[in-house]
Amino acid sequence: MELTRRDRQRAATVAEIKAAARKLLVEGGASSVGLRAVARELGLSAPALYRYFGSHEDLISALIADLYDELTDALVALRDGDPEADLGDKLFLIAGGLRDWALAHPAEFGLLFGAPVPNPDADDHELTPGHLAAMRFAAVFKELVAQIYQQQPFPHPAEDELGPELLAQLRRKSEFFDGMPAGAVYLSLTYWTRLYGLICMEVFGQLHWAFEDAGAYFQAQLFEIGEALGLDCPVPD
Amino acid sequence: MELTRRDRQRAATVAEIKAAARKLLVEGGASSVGLRAVARELGLSAPALYRYFGSHEDLISALIADLYDELTDALVALRDGDPEADLGDKLFLIAGGLRDWALAHPAEFGLLFGAPVPNPDADDHELTPGHLAAMRFAAVFKELVAQIYQQQPFPHPAEDELGPELLAQLRRKSEFFDGMPAGAVYLSLTYWTRLYGLICMEVFGQLHWAFEDAGAYFQAQLFEIGEALGLDCPVPD
DNA sequence: TCGCCAGAGTGAACACCGTTAACAGTTAAC
DNA sequence: GTTAACTGTTAACGGTGTTCACTCTGGCGA
């Protein structure tokens, strides 16, 4: 018990600030969540927020981390919700869940996945909480794909089909994918790449010149990339 | 000859302004290209720019249109550069060219493709010059795919494999694709979706946790999606 | 219980931003 | 040659993130 009364008050205020920031984000997009606007939202002066966050960017980073955690929790709940579902069903579930969350929270999704990610391998790398939360999020998909492969290895390209340079980079990621062979890692990354690209395009409006409702297209694509992982069609509604 | 001296001066100034805006864009990202900063760049006061652009947003829109045109010109030059190349080669050429341009001009690419596109079907639709330039850009890919199909129709999903809702939306886009059948339209959109998503992910850094150099992965994916259009592997270097 | 100090909050100020208004000089047109 | 349009200016308004100096108060150790 090291939580003094003031610590609890402080934590509550931090939560209030992030809640206000999110409200502004939802209502007016990323550009609307300003330091002064947040302060105004809870009847404080702008400099007061500097007691809780070092800068405006820090506030946004904390909000991003929170949103990643919320999204991750939602997907985990979806994954563990139906005990009847097999691993393939679970993958379809969370893929659709990711799309649903993105469409239901476009502003939040834009904040998480729309902004360019600074290269952490560069010399100025500092692992923000947002990076860590993003890794927890990505791990949900990674673990599921790895489990699927472990349970029923899907056919994958042979190593000599991949080309030496690609092969070397895939091998380096093999242990991250629980020791899957390079060809299987390639298919896993293809799955993620296509799913991510598809959802980003839909949410960011890059698809509504072609589809007024991209849901059917999404399902078809999901089935396509699921097939590559040896999964059956889920529910062709 | 209705170009008075002042008209030419004015056009030159407009070009200067956009050049300065682009310089700032390249040097410091989208957030660095401000009205005052642009004015400072060419020794003007900020309100002077309002003689040439109605607002800051108008300036950005004009810059976007210019960049689309530049990109389109580059791809067209690539397409028409090698008279020996067949249509398939040309498609690989401009796909790689798009990636190269994106990697060489990440800030410009982010401005063109990173920002959410407002739905033009909504009631507040106003066709900006940027929209028109984007359509000219997209037409380069569309025409090439349509020509490829016309020359050598690639195998495509039958209509009953697509599902009724997806089929209806694809049919509506058939005439835009020079009367291609729905299944072929589906494959064309898949091509574009995957290419676009892939490049966005690489440029926006969403891929460098997996690949330090995504070039080999890009080539492999490009071959994959080219195969679906009945094309041979270009140059497996 | 007293004293003290860290924590929380304030208003003023700085430098920037997009934008508007009122004004002056130049240039083209009638 | 007069006039009107065009191009530019400075001043100002309201907005932003941020820092500084200041006050007040709650919780801790002596």
UniProtKB/TrEMBL annotation, chains A, B:
UniProt key word Ligase: no
Q: Which Pfam family, any one of them, does this sequence belong to?
A: TetR_C_33
Which InterPro entries has this protein been placed in?
Answer: Homeodomain-like_sf, HTH-type_TetR-like_transc_reg, HTH_TetR, MT1864/Rv1816-like_C, Tet_transcr_reg_TetR-rel_C_sf
Going by the UniProt record, its keywords in alphabetical order are: DNA-binding, Transcription, Transcription regulation
Domain (HTH tetR-type) spans: 11-71
Keyword field contains Membrane? no
Per the UniProt entry, the signal peptide is none
Which sequence positions fall in the DNA-binding region? 34-53
This one is known as TetR/AcrR family transcriptional regulator
- This protein's species is Kribbella koreensis
Q: What is the lineage of its organism?
A: Bacteria, Bacillati, Actinomycetota, Actinomycetes, Propionibacteriales
